[in-house]
Amino acid sequence: MEKISAYAKSRRGNSLSNTPKFKHMKKLLFSILSFFIILSASAHAVFIETSLQGTKGKSHTVKVVYGEPDEHELISKWWWYKEDMQVTLTLIKPDGSTSSLTTTAQGNHLLATFIPDQDGAYHVSLKRDTERKAGAKTQYQINAIATIQVGNTTLGHTSAHLANELFVFADQTVFKNKKEVSLTLFQKGKPAPNAAVQIIAPSGWIKWLETDAQGVIKFIPEWKGKYYAEVSRKEKIEGQAFEEYSRASSMSFAVN
């Protein structure tokens, strides 16, 4: 009641609004509101959508979409889209060799395919700087990865194969419902501590988790299905025409 009364007095012109304590509260409230505005603004992301299980010798489809999972926006509305644009994905095979996958526009997504010729973990990654307007102080970068398991071997399942500056990596190859999931956030090849990662469950459940000193987040899934992890980070840059990089990254994994 004391806080309510103080607020009511300030509304009547009480000098409390000029006190250091009140100014601190206003600053704190502004910071909290700004934080939630930032979270709301980062709701959309670029995702690689694909079946996380593949079959050796059988064509495998990979989609690149923009928006919320399963709520895609037309690619003509992508803020980084240009007419006849093609996005190149990097395919990393279990033996560490790489090849390029060129996407084609398919209405509300970009499409690429490949045929697995080995057993093990295949990583598909996207890394792309967006078009930066002249004079803009921020360079935006999109990162996305997906890991497709072919056969039962864990060959090729390593974060060292990924060259993205920012990505979330699944240290496990199999995820079970009601069993703890461990994910690691990497930035420039090193685990990134004290960073916020958003987890989106198939039910629509969303939770923000903070990485520990080793860049790890852990949680227990409550539903089976495909989960997404999203993260964004900023980095100050010197010697460039812009002042900072703003990187965003997403990945998906299946819980059985």
From TrEMBL:
This is DUF4198 domain-containing protein. It comes from the Bacteria. Pfam families: DUF4198.
